[in-house]
Structure formats: C-alpha cells, structure tokens
Fold:
Amino acid sequence: MESERMYGDKGEVPDGEYLLPIGKAHIAREGTDVTIVSFNKMMKVALAAAEELAKEGISAEVIDLRTIRPMDHETIIRSVMKTSRIVVVDENWPFGSVASEIAFRVQKDAFDHLMRPAARQSKADTPLPFAPAPIEASLPSVSRTVRAVKECMYLVK
Structure:
C-alpha cells in the first residue's frame, strides 16, 4: 500500500493537526476542457500532464480522489458535466480497476454530458517487469496521458 518510489518526495506539511476527509476528493487543479482523475503516486503524472497540456492551451481539471472507497463520485460527475471529457490515470491493470469503475460510473451518471467515452491510462495488461526500463514503459506516463487527452479532444487519432 505504500510506494517506495515516493520515499524521497518532499513537500509542504501544515502546522498543527491536519485531517483529510474520508470520501471527499480534492480538485488539485481547476480546468474547463477535460477532467483528469487519479490518486496516490499517479497524481504526479496527472498534474505534470496538465502542465504540459496548458502549454498547448488545453485546460485540464485534475481531481485527486484521496480515497477510493468510499469514492467521491459527485465531484467527478460535476467536473465531467463541466468539461465533457474524462481521462482516468491509474497504475493498476485495466481489468477490474479503479479506472474501470470510474469510467462505468461516469458513463452511467453523466453519459449525456460526454463528448467522448471515458478514457483510461492504466498499467500495461502484463505482469510487472523487474528491470527499471520495462517497468517505466508499462506504467502510465505523462506523454501517454497527454496523448489520451488529445485523443479525447479530437486533436490526434
């Protein structure tokens, strides 16, 4: 449940008691063109992709789920109703993943608001390799997330 890759991460820590509400997502970046949903260490990929997209004039709203059960479907649906597009970045296998649950719920509850089907950026559907280069190739990346967003925006095929 913890990521060894995040051991060296540094960031601001609030003074005093700091509590996060269970089941309440956080809009990490406001946007209008596409919703990117993620959690845990894939938030780095989602936020970096949003930065790259902003350089090209694409405004991505990034949602940090924080918790996956309970999941804040309301925040996701509200965002999709605003942007009409969604890409879910999840480092799990695509079959039976958090991303597949989010895609299902969005298409169930916000179908009429979608310009395109929900897109997923997941780990390759293969066993996780041992060597660093194949591991990187099998996990979601900033460049693949940017491409998925552009596909949702009809900017690439």
In short: The chain has a mean pLDDT of 93.
